[in-house]
Specification:
Strands 1-2 form a two-stranded parallel sheet. It is mainly alpha-helical. The longest helix has 30 residues.
């Protein structure tokens, strides 16, 4: 959100550049709207990922589709990278469309993701999970 320093700097810029205040206000409103929508999307992503059962995985695209837009796969990855509660939101159960684990697993790397999945009885072979066998059909 906007802090008082940013507002003060924006006011100085408006005066100096003789900008239209309505344009600045619209820009700030749009940014706040995007922030609010992104927050809501992230909450939806976390809620869905929380439902992936023990011993199952889902793909980024699958989570995106369940959120209402199959093109949000990157947004899913972005949200999971910022997972606020890894104990309740099992982001390690999310893999790519080919079953590959992520190289950049946010909470310890590829090895940790692999170990967590193996601890749930999921076979990981060469950094991949068999989606036919382990994919959640939720």
């Amino acid at each position: 959100m906007i802090n008082i320093f940013e507002v003060t700097e924006t006011n100085k810029m408006v005066e100096k550049e003789n900008l239209d205040v309505r344009t600045i206000t619209l820009g700030i409103s749009l940014l706040n709207c995007i922030d609010d929508n992104l927050e809501k999307l992230n909450e939806k992503i976390y809620k869905i990922v929380s439902k992936i059962p023990y011993g199952k995985v889902a793909t980024y695209g699958q989570i995106a589709t369940l959120c209402g837009n199959p093109y949000y796969a990157r947004a899913v990855g972005n949200a999971l990278h910022k997972n606020p509660n890894p104990q309740k939101i099992p982001c390690y159960r999310v893999v790519n469309s080919k079953g590959k684990l992520t190289e950049n697993f946010a909470f310890g790397g590829l090895r940790v993701q692999s170990d967590l999945l193996i601890s749930e009885g999921i076979e990981v072979i060469d950094g991949k999970v068999d989606l036919e066998k382990y994919q959640w059909r939720g």
